[in-house]
């Protein structure tokens, strides 16, 4: 053989691609592999395989005086290096977790931690800690007296604005989950005519209808407000 060959060197803790002169002896090869694999030359057991998945070795490099060419070393074969005394050289311990003490934490101890995922969810009200269930329950509650036909007033964010009307619908809808109250306003302050996303829930004039959650509606004696108009010109 002449030149160098490219081979893979594998050991319990390493895997690398190397260029090797086939004219060197097995003893010399072991000296070169010691700093690569971490296995002392005297403890190395080297087998030659055609590939890493090969079912059996092509040769056992057990004669330190032989040149590598004697074993027919060629490109892209695998030199598998094992340790005959791993307890002395500690090889394989980087990948062997059988001797590592397992860290375990009880549910109670985990719940006390402030740096856990659970603590984060609790602080930011995420997942099962979100307040949506309470909100949905509040929105779904229909007070006594809230019936179709009742007069009502809808909560407004604008000071002094009264949004009065009559209840025309109470129940679940297709456009959103939960219970909704359909109202026909006394004035055109609404958003629809009782017809939403292809479904008719009640009938009223355009821009007089609206859907709101029950907790935004007050039922009672809310007569239609009369608009006072004074003549400014004679």
Automatic annotation (TrEMBL):
Q: Which GO terms describe its biological process?
A: cytoplasmic microtubule organization; post-chaperonin tubulin folding pathway; tubulin complex assembly
Q: Name one GO molecular function term.
A: microtubule plus-end binding
Highest taxon, organism lineage: Eukaryota
Note the InterPro entries from the entry.
CAP-Gly_dom_sf, CAP-Gly_domain, TBCB_Ubl, Ubiquitin-like_dom, Ubiquitin-like_domsf
The alphabetical list of record keywords is:
Chaperone, Cytoplasm
Location, primary (coarse class): cytoplasm
Q: Where in the cell does this protein reside?
A: Cytoplasm
Task: List the PANTHER family.
Answer: DYNACTIN 1-RELATED MICROTUBULE-BINDING, TUBULIN-FOLDING COFACTOR B
User: Can you say what this protein is called?
Assistant: CAP-Gly domain-containing protein
């Amino acid at each position: 053989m002449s030149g160098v060959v490219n081979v893979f060197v594998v050991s319990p803790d390493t895997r690398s691609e190397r260029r090797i002169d086939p004219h060197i002896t097995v003893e010399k090869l072991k000296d070169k592999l010691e700093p690569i694999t971490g296995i002392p030359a005297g403890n190395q057991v080297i087998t030659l395989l055609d590939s890493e998945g090969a079912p059996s070795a092509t040769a056992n490099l057990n004669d330190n005086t032989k040149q590598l060419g004697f074993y027919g070393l060629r490109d892209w074969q695998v030199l598998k290096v094992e340790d005959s005394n791993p307890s002395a050289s500690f090889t394989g311990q980087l990948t062997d977790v059988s001797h590592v003490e397992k860290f375990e934490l009880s549910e109670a101890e985990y719940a006390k931690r402030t740096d856990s995922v659970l603590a984060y969810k609790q602080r930011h009200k995420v997942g099962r800690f979100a307040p949506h269930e309470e909100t949905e329950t509040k929105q779904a509650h229909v007070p006594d007296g809230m019936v179709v036909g009742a007069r009502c007033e809808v909560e407004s964010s604008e000071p002094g604005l009264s949004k009065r009307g009559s209840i025309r619908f109470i129940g679940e809808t297709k456009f959103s989950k939960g219970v909704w109250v359909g109202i026909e306003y006394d004035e055109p302050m609404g958003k629809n005519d009782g017809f939403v996303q292809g479904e008719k829930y009640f009938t009223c004039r355009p821009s007089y209808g609206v859907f709101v959650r029950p907790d935004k509606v007050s039922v009672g004696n809310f007569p239609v407000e009369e608009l006072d108009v004074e003549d400014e010109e004679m």
